[in-house]
Structures are given as structure tokens and as C-alpha cells.
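Postdoc handover notes: sequence design on the structure in folder B. Input C-alpha cells:
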């Protein structure tokens, strides 16, 4: 008899334990004083060092441990005043969908190990490509996050420029490939370039204008200069929402340059692209000009971690780059049952699509349109109200849901003090920002639990603090 299963009684106990945890957690979110808990090093050291028991402690102990040791040392990312970085709140059905996915334990790598998983993922990709009007040949894949989606996209761009790249790698002595990003690009792009062997020395950083958008004249000039010196420009990564201020690069203009220069255009929309659902940012429509787009369902689609997404204008590119024949895996050419292992880096893959599918069906598309619109509105409100405070300076236009600001008086240390005080005294987490050499704070509304009351509380506190 295996001891790795629960008896009927234990299963009932676990079900009850989970239900209780979920209820207690909602109550905690409503009453918690801190988003980031006060650091309890002894508790964390205990978690690190306590040896695992030879015989099991049972189901009850697990839920006790979660309540006593895990939750008190966890950041409340679902708290209505968690407004740091870009980490979406998980929607309400996500934990249940995750549990079902774990019970089914489909391997979404190939369709024999999960027919529904293969098709549900395709349905989500079709919905996403449909939002961008991306055309009949579009396809894509869910990834672990935006960083992985961009890594995959740059692999596609490499394969397009160097069709023999798979065999020769980057060691074949040909001209150096050059990638272009703006100075506001997310570090995941540089990381991908470094990981793929392109080398950071071959990543050109294009300056931005006073609204933090890529300067396209500079891009054109840099491409020309690189060609003259014998380099091979192969990919531009444009931003649909820079990670700090939410700036949207002039994607139409960049696309024109890429077309005439025969360069792959990738759009990093990990933060901003899903704001297209709000119907309020028509500039995002230009994303459809790109060869590929990174999106992050775990941000503005509120799927819960982890879920990134890559969509590609020509889906055949995915298999060209990622399909490998293996004698120990089944052959499949059925267009209905895609093998997603042939479209990305992973073989074994979690059935993450279920979580996104569950939310789209449970709440409906309209709920996501409303939630993204609400994030934009709250950020706009926060931006307006901070901008009129005499002691506060906005560091950038509020393009999406990020609000970057600083206190006019004081240096970087004062900005950090305000960041700390917001957490300590109002239970609000913002992140740091650096824009145009100015240090400040960054609020990002990627949270459907945030309300106008939260914004009021935050503005009142900042007003009091900054006019002391
Ligand atoms: C979050 C983010 C990323 C990285 O995405 P992960 O899902 O965290 O890997 C990349 N680019 C931008 C603009 C982002 O906001």
C-alpha cells in the first residue's frame, strides 16, 4: 500500500482545510496592516533548516504550517494596496482551476498526454491573436512568463536571419547580429540576448524622447551605421508599455523601418499589451504590425502565476525553430492536436491554459475589459491628484496604469523613506522608479481589488508626508 495517497477521511480533512484557508485568506486581505510582512528572520531560518521528518506529520499539520509559518511570512500580492512592479492579482477561479490541473496532471507538451489541454491552449491563443487582429496565419504558445516568451521570440528572429542557426549556432564566423532596444526596455531582452549568445555588446540601446518612447530617427541611423560597419541588424524589440512608465513606442514607424530593412520586429507587451482589452488605448492596435508579441496573462489578464504568452504572425516559425524529432516520442501531424513541445523550449508543461480558460468562461470577456479599464482609470485618477500636490512631481505621463513620481524636495534617500512609510503606515506597496536620472516611486495598478478608497487613502498620506 502506498503512503502517497490520502484516505477518504484525510481527503475530507484536506478539502475542509483548503476551504478554511481560502476563507481566512480573504479575511486577512481585508484586515492586514502590511502588504510586506515585517521580516521575521528566525521564522525564515527555521523554514530553511528544519529537517524533514522520517514519518509524515499528516494533513492537518500541513494546513497548520501554512497558517502559522507560510502565510505570516508571505507578501500579500492580492492586497488591494499591492501596487508595486507589475504582478497581477489572481482571479477568483484561478486556485480551483490550478487544483483541477494538478489532479488531472496533463502534460501539455504533447497531445497524447492531454487532448483537451492541447486544444484549450490553442483556443486561448486564437482568442489572444483575435484581439490583435493578427491574421489567419497567427499562432503562439503559453510560456512560464514574459521573459521566456521574449527569449523564444528572439530565437525565432535568429532562425529567420540564419536559417542554419540550429546547426551552426553563432559560431560560424559570419557577421555579428545586432539587436535594438530602447533605453527603457525591460532587462529580460538583454538577458535573452546574453543567453542566446548574441552578446550584450551587440545590443544597441536606442535613446527615448521626453515621453520615454523610442526615437525612431535614432533607430534608423543606428541600423544604417551598423550595416556600414559590416554588422547584421536582425531584430528590434519595441515596447507596448515600458516597464517603468508604460510608454508605448511608435510601433507603426518602427514597423516601417523593420519592413524596409528586413528586420524582425518583436513587441514586448508583457506589461501593456492586454490593455487593448480596455478599448481605450488605440495605440496598442499597432502591435499587429509586429512579427511577434510577448504578453503576460499573469499580469493584466489576472491569471495567477505563472502564465506568459508569445504570439507570432506566422505560426510556422515556431516549429521551424523548436520542433525536433525524437524516436522516444510520438509522431503527430494532426492539425487539431498540436504538440506544444514543438512550439517552444519546454517538453513537460503544466496545464496552465486551464486557469486562463476557466477565468474567461467563468467571468466572461467583459469582466476583463472592465478590469483593465478600471486599472487605467484608477491610475489616471492617482496621477491627476498627485500632479496637483505642490510637493510632488510626476516623472512621466501616465500612459497606462503606472504612475511615477517623486517628492520635489530631497534626494533618492527621501524617496526610499516615503516608499517605506507607505508600507509601514498605510499598508501600501509601491516600487522604486528611475526616469531621466530622477529617482522616485512607482505605483502600478494591475490589481482589480484596488478601489477609489485605496487611492484616497494613499493620496492623503502622500499629501501629509510631503508637506510636513
Ligand atoms: C514583467 C515584464 C517582463 C518580464 O515578464 P516576466 O513574466 O516577469 O518574465 C518583460 N517586459 C515587461 C515590459 C514587463 O513588464
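Designed sequence:
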Amino acid at each position: 500500500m502506498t503512503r502517497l495517497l490520502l484516505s477518504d477521511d484525510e481527503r475530507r480533512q484536506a478539502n475542509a482545510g483548503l476551504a478554511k484557508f481560502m476563507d481566512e485568506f480573504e479575511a486577512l486581505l481585508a484586515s492586514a496592516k502590511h502588504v510586506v510582512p515585517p521580516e521575521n528572520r528566525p521564522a525564515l531560518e527555521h523554514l530553511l533548516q528544519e529537517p524533514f521528518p522520517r514519518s509524515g506529520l499528516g494533513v492537518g499539520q500541513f494546513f497548520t504550517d501554512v497558517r502559522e509559518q507560510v502565510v505570516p511570512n508571505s507578501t500579500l500580492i492580492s492586497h488591494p494596496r499591492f501596487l508595486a512592479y507589475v504582478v497581477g492579482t489572481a482571479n477568483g477561479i484561478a486556485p480551483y482551476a490550478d487544483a483541477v490541473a494538478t489532479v488531472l496532471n496533463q502534460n501539455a507538451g504533447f497531445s497524447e498526454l492531454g487532448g483537451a489541454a492541447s486544444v484549450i491552449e490553442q483556443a486561448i491563443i486564437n482568442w489572444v491573436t483575435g484581439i490583435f487582429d493578427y491574421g489567419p496565419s497567427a499562432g503562439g504558445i503559453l510560456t512560464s512568463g514574459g521573459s521566456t516568451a521574449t527569449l523564444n521570440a528572439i530565437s525565432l528572429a535568429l532562425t529567420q536571419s540564419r536559417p542554419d542557426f540550429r546547426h551552426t549556432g553563432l559560431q560560424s564566423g559570419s557577421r555579428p547580429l545586432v539587436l535594438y532596444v530602447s533605453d527603457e526596455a525591460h532587462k529580460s531582452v538583454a538577458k535573452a540576448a546574453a543567453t542566446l549568445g548574441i552578446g550584450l555588446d551587440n545590443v544597441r540601446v536606442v535613446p527615448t524622447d521626453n515621453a520615454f518612447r523610442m526615437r525612431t530617427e535614432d533607430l534608423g541611423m543606428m541600423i544604417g551605421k551598423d550595416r556600414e560597419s559590416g554588422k547584421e541588424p536582425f531584430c528590434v524589440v519595441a515596447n507596448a508599455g515600458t516597464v517603468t512608465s508604460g510608454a508605448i513606442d511608435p510601433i507603426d514607424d518602427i514597423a516601417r523601418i523593420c519592413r524596409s530593412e528586413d528586420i524582425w520586429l518583436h513587441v514586448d507587451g508583457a506589461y501593456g499589451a492586454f490593455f487593448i482589452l480596455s478599448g481605450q488605448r488605440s495605440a496598442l492596435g499597432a502591435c499587429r504590425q509586429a512579427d511577434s508579441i510577448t504578453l503576460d496573462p499573469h499580469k493584466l489578464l489576472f491569471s495567477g502565476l505563472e502564465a506568459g504568452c508569445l504570439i507570432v504572425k506566422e505560426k510556422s516559425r515556431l516549429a521551424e525553430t523548436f520542433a525536433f524529432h525524437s524516436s522516444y516520442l510520438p509522431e503527430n501531424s494532426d492539425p487539431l492536436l498540436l504538440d506544444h513541445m514543438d512550439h517552444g523550449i519546454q517538453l513537460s508543461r503544466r496545464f496552465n491554459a486551464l486557469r486562463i480558460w476557466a477565468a474567461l468562461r467563468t467571468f466572461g470577456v467583459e469582466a476583463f475589459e472592465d478590469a483593465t479599464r478600471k486599472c487605467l482609470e484608477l491610475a489616471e485618477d492617482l496621477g491627476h491628484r498627485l500632479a496637483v500636490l505642490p510637493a510632488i512631481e510626476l516623472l512621466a505621463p501616465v500612459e497606462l496604469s503606472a504612475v511615477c513620481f517623486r517628492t520635489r524636495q530631497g534626494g533618492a534617500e527621501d524617496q526610499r523613506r516615503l516608499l517605506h512609510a507607505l508600507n509601514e503606515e498605510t499598508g501600501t506597496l509601491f516600487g522604486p522608479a528611475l526616469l531621466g536620472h530622477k529617482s522616485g516611486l512607482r505605483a502600478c495598478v494591475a490589481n482589480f481589488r484596488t478601489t477609489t478608497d485605496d487611492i484616497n487613502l494613499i493620496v492623503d498620506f502622500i499629501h501629509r508626508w510631503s508637506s510636513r
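Context for whoever picks this up: The chain has a mean pLDDT of 96. Don't rerun without checking with the PI first.
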